[in-house]
């Protein structure tokens, strides 16, 4: 059998040799499940930085060639085209979503800077508990830091809103054909950048550049951990120790897959559709209450989920760390509330021509903002009484706070969308919004760069984290810009052409 033309002979031999090792011991006690997974992963990921870099160098060269070539077949790869698209303005009432998206990613970055950015947290040193206490005990920023995971709820509302508007534009199409096109386009949007990032992050390139990232984020992956990311099921991992922060992509894709059920009913029978959607949101709240009661975690409100593999962990330790919390944090049936709220908002903005005069618009916005702030700071009793357990207050808060916060975000968006006077946002937010997906993928490696910053490692106040955040954000968006120009945009042009030819 001849070796693959896409790989050098020595690489093909190495892959066959490793796969052979797996086949030799299908049931041997010598190799446990983890060892088999490592062999499978090693069979398909390069061993050296040089081997891993060659495909990336080849692709970058092709993009550069497409930028200077006169051949039409390569124009989709052009950097100039990508830059033009990045700078294009939409002039739509939905431009306001760009600001919310930017705020959400900053909040997520702040969360991870205060966790994975600290060596003592990565290595479970005694100073980690003192640092967390200092964050939570701050009278102004404590709740803002502790509840920074609510940035995910903003993303879910925006995702549901845009999913609804995308579906409803062609709601008259046959359901199955429309569903197939709807999901395929979403996959083509998310998969290429994520696949390439996982290829870089899980291989020797990241291990050489950021060894601590590899040891705490990738070492526990194995074959099945990597597979969960490329199949958008990482939120169903038993523990989020394999690049766990990417769990959101799996959740988003799964919610997209079921969204057409609600949207189809909303389109054909709005009243029944709204009843079903509201009932599902309420049911999700009860499930959350059930989980936190059963696991005794209502006093934690599913915050502070560690996305890392700690040194010397065993199965029982992992189970105790994530018991109940991970289920509430990542599963579709406990996280669908904010997405479905966004879905309803998308339906209303698409089907209604309502215009709000300035006074009601301001009242709705300010009232929603007030509810959002109160929801964030309502976690403080849990910090004041960390051993209170499953009190009625803690149980109710854990059950409803994410959906209540999402309702407040939806209210602010509705106030801005339906206001009488259209006010365009600054063009910089449109650019940043287009880079947000890649910034989400890349911000965690950037956070690990700050492991070498003494100022962050000795921080004792949320103010210190806020001072570091602009630097984390700047580096993350610069990395995202490179990824956008060389990965997302050119591949997006190719997949868009492919989808159009297939009639999707």
From TrEMBL:
Alphabetical list of Pfam families matching this protein: Acyl_transf_3
Keyword Membrane: yes
Sorted UniProt keywords: Membrane, Transmembrane, Transmembrane helix
UniProt-listed InterPro entries: Acyl_transf_3_dom (IPR002656), O2_lipid_transport_reg (IPR052728)
Transmembrane spans: 56-80, 92-110, 140-167, 187-206, 245-266, 273-291, 332-351, 363-380, 400-418, 439-457, 463-487
Location of the Acyltransferase domain: 97-480
MF-aspect GO terms: acyltransferase activity, transferring groups other than amino-acyl groups
UniProt protein name: Acyltransferase 3 domain-containing protein
């Amino acid at each position: 059998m001849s070796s693959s033309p896409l790989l050098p002979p020595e690489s093909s031999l190495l892959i066959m040799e490793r796969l052979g090792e797996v086949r030799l011991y299908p049931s041997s006690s010598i190799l446990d499940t983890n060892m088999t997974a490592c062999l499978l992963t090693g069979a398909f990921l390069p061993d050296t930085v040089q081997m891993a870099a060659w495909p990336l160098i080849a692709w970058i060269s092709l993009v550069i060639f497409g930028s200077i070539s006169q051949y039409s077949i390569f124009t989709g790869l052009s950097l100039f085209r990508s830059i033009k698209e990045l700078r294009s303005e939409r002039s739509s009432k939905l431009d306001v979503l760009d600001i919310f998206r930017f705020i959400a990613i900053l909040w997520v970055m702040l969360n991870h800077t205060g966790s994975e950015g600290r060596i003592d947290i990565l290595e479970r040193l005694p100073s980690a508990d003192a640092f967390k206490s200092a964050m939570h005990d701050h009278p102004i920023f404590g709740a803002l830091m502790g509840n920074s995971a609510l940035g995910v709820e903003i993303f879910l509302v925006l995702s549901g809103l845009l999913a609804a508007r995308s579906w409803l534009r062609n709601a008259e199409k046959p359901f199955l054909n429309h569903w197939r096109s709807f999901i395929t386009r979403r996959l083509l949007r998310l998969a290429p950048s994520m696949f390439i990032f996982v290829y870089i992050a899980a291989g020797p390139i990241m291990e050489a550049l950021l060894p601590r990232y590899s040891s705490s984020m990738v070492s526990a992956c194995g074959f099945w951990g990597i597979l969960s990311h490329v199949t958008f099921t990482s939120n169903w991992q038993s523990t989020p120790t394999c690049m766990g922060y990417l769990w959101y992509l799996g959740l988003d894709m799964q919610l997209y897959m079921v969204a057409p059920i609600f949207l189809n009913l909303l389109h054909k029978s709005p009243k029944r559709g709204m009843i079903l959607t509201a009932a599902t949101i309420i049911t999700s709240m009860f499930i959350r209450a059930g989980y936190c009661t059963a696991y005794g975690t209502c006093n934690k409100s599913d915050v502070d989920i560690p996305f890392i593999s700690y040194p010397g962990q065993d199965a029982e330790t992992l189970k105790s760390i994530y018991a109940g919390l991970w289920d509430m944090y990542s599963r579709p049936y406990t996280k669908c509330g904010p997405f479905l709220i966004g879905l309803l908002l998308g339906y209303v903005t698409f089907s209604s021509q309502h215009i709000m005069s300035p006074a009601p618009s301001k009242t709705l916005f300010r009232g929603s903002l007030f509810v959002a702030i109160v929801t964030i700071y309502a976690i403080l009793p849990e910090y004041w009484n960390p051993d209170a357990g499953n009190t009625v207050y803690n149980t109710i808060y854990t059950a409803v706070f994410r959906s209540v916060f999402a309702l407040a975000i939806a209210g602010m968006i509705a106030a801005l969308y339906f206001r009488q006077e259209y006010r365009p946002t600054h063009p910089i937010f449109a650019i940043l919004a287009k880079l947000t997906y890649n910034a989400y993928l890349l911000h965690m490696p950037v956070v690990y760069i700050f492991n070498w910053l003494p100022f962050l490692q000795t921080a004792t106040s949320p103010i210190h984290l806020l001072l570091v955040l602009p630097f984390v954000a700047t580096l993350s968006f610069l990395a995202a810009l490179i990824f956008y120009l060389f990965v997302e945009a050119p591949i997006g042009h190719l997949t868009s052409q492919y989808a159009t030819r297939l009639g999707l």
